[in-house]
């Protein structure tokens, strides 16, 4: 029994000694986090004021995405400023963890978690600023086209804006997923699939409406055209999203063939009605 008590007291003494030795490192790590917290706070306020005074926020508030931010109660400059604050603070936590040099499996997990938190905050910053800047860029491109387009073709500028923005957001998401170290073989097909579906929705609405406005004889089949375009892009999008899953390629191919046959059968009465109407007009 005395031997067990001696072993316990010796282990406690060693642990207390290690804690006492580590106290200066713990204090230094706490100071690193405290300095990072206040530096991040100052940097966040500076970025907040810079965005607000540069006029970027005012221009962004006039866009569709900016209006959505405002409805959600999000102030762009303030939100980015807080993200910068969080980024610097998390970066200081990472520096403190590395300074403590915690060994063993627990140290590896703590270091990995701190490093990944930096990536998460950085990805949110890139996504927020990138979405705002790309929205402004797409709006600028659309306005340049509207200057040279005829008055009755101004809707084409909105279509160009939507398509441009979808492509830019897809590029932005690929950057964000790279920052988060997510596997490209899984993420990129998902992005392409979502982009295809988004393009289908945009084109089926705006493009068909523009054609129907210019060609009155096309209006009876406008609804069918919207459905056809949307379904084509939907099949492409689904193929992109689930194409990497084993065994789904054949299923998607069968669905595509079935859709093509159904669309052809639906087209017969539509074309007949349209041809009959054109024949009456010609007579």
Give the topology, please.
Layout: H1 2-54, H2 56-61, H3 64-71, H4 76-100, H5 104-148, H6 155-179, H7 184-214, H8 222-242, H9 248-282
Describe what you observe in this structure:
The protein is mainly alpha-helical. The chain has a domain at 184-283. 88% of the residues lie in helices and 0% in strands. It has helices spanning 2-54, 56-61, 64-71, 76-100, 104-148, 155-179, 184-214, 222-242, 248-282. Helix 6 (155-179) runs antiparallel to helix 7 (184-214) and helix 8 (222-242) packs antiparallel against helix 9 (248-282). The N and C termini lie far apart (115 Å). The model has no long low-confidence stretch (mean pLDDT 75).
Cα radius of gyration in angstroms: 29 Å
Give the topology string: H per helix, E per strand. Answer: HHHHHHHHH
Shape descriptor: elongated
**Global mean pLDDT:** 75
Residues in β-strands, percent: under 5%
Spatial gap, N to C terminus = 115 Å
**Total helical segments:** 9
Largest sheet: none
Helix content: over 70%
What is the structural class?
mainly alpha
Total number of strands: 0
Low-confidence stretches: none
Brief write-up:
The chain contains nine helices and no strands. With 283 residues, the protein is mainly alpha-helical. The longest helix has 53 residues.
């Amino acid at each position: 029994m005395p031997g067990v008590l001696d072993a316990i007291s010796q282990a406690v003494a060693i642990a207390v000694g290690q804690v006492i030795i580590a106290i200066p490192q713990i204090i230094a790590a706490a100071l690193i986090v405290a300095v990072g917290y206040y530096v991040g706070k100052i940097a966040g306020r500076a970025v907040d004021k810079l965005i607000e005074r540069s006029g970027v926020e005012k221009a962004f508030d006039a866009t569709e995405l900016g209006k959505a931010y405002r409805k959600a109660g999000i102030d762009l400059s303030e939100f980015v400023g807080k993200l910068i604050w969080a980024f610097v603070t998390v970066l200081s936590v990472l520096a403190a963890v590395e300074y403590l040099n915690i060994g063993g499996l627990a140290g590896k997990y703590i270091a990995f978690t701190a490093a990944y938190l930096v990536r998460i905050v950085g990805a949110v910053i890139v996504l927020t600023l990138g979405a705002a800047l790309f929205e402004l860029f797409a709006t600028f491109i659309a306005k340049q086209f509207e200057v040279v387009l005829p008055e009755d073709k101004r809707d084409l500028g909105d279509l160009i804006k939507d398509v441009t923005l979808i492509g830019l957001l897809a590029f932005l998401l690929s950057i964000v997923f790279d920052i988060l170290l997510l596997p490209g073989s899984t993420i990129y097909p998902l992005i392409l699939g979502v982009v295809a579906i988004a393009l289908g929705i945009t084109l089926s609405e705006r493009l068909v409406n523009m054609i129907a406005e210019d060609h009155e004889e096309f209006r009876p089949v406008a609804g069918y055209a919207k459905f056809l375009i949307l379904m084509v892009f939907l099949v492409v999008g689904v193929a992109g999203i689930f194409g990497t899953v084993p065994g789904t390629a054949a299923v998607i191919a069968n669905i595509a063939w079935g859709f093509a046959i159904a669309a052809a059968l639906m087209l017969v009465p539509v074309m007949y009605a349209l041809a009959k109407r054109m024949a009456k007009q010609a007579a």
